[in-house]
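Lab notebook, bench 4. The sequencing result for the construct came back, and we need a structural model before the next group meeting so we can plan mutations. Quick request posted to the team channel:

Model the 3D structure of this chain.
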Amino acid sequence: MNAPLLAKPVALRIADLGNAIERARIGAFVHDHPEGTPFHLPAWSIAVARGCGQRSHYLVAENAGGDLAGVMPLTEIRSPLFGNVLASAGFGVGGGILTHDPRIVPQLAEAAWTLAGQRKCPVVEVRGGPLPGPEWRVDDTRYLGFVHALAEDDAAQLAAIPRKQRAEVRKALENDLDVATGCNPGDIAAHYAVYAESVRNLGTPVFPRTLFSEVLREFGNSADVLIVRRGGVAVSSVLSLYWNGTVYPYWGGGTREARALRANDRMYFELMRHARTRGCRRFDFGRSKTGTGAASFKKNWGFDPQPLTYYERVAEGAKARDASPVNPKYSLQVRVWSKLPLWIANRAGPLIAKGLG
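Done. Here's the predicted structure in token form:
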């Protein structure tokens, strides 16, 4: 009988993301991997670390020849309210271990678990990728992902939207709304004002403004803000990433006036149009919790939900972390937060949200 195959020897270390050559090398590996996402890129790790004051640890595996064989972005998220967690990838909806060799998966997973112990993080969350190992709990029922191909032109895009939602989009296109894209300081300020009001109305704290500005800075031409205005006043806005032929509308929302104006419908249709001009072929509507209004909204656009698989490992004696606003135990806090004056929510929110991850 043949002896069992041994895993190829690899060296594991934390990458120096301050080194431009190291960043470019990792970026090329992520870009060429079929399961790579923007959340695997060094730019994401750097932006969320600067934007939220949390620490990034980017694990890399190298083979005997010094070539990259696997990566695992990790963010150390500390919160006095929700506890400490090591997440892959922090503040993203995707991440996890990225490698072409399945034998490297458990090595990176164990390195992450060891690092979590050293950093006193009793929980490790892995958002996507292969199963890290038998010790990890699998969750494939909580979140849904929504991805769809973009049509070839506006007419085909409208036709691809189910009838009821298509009627809403047509009405939105008839409204007197102005649409513009950019990423200058004025655009960032307008987006943040709209987004902050939107999440306050939903009863959740807003992320620090620096998170948005750092993501735009790190992604450069691969990110922008699309703003819908009525009479010069921003009513809907979305910050999107563009990567490998896919547009990712990541942080979007609208003011209370947006609903009557159908500004959010206009915003997403205009983003589809804009993404096509940038050469995108797919529209990734992001994740939503199963059974929520956000998930229904995306289904109405004709996006078929696909379960997202996440993994979690919790230290003995510790509790799993659940900071989701749909958790029933936070229902009172959500109701109270949605009634706060906006200036209070905008000042207190980032202090809380930077620990959500």
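The chain is about 40% helix and 25% strand.
Will bring this to the meeting.
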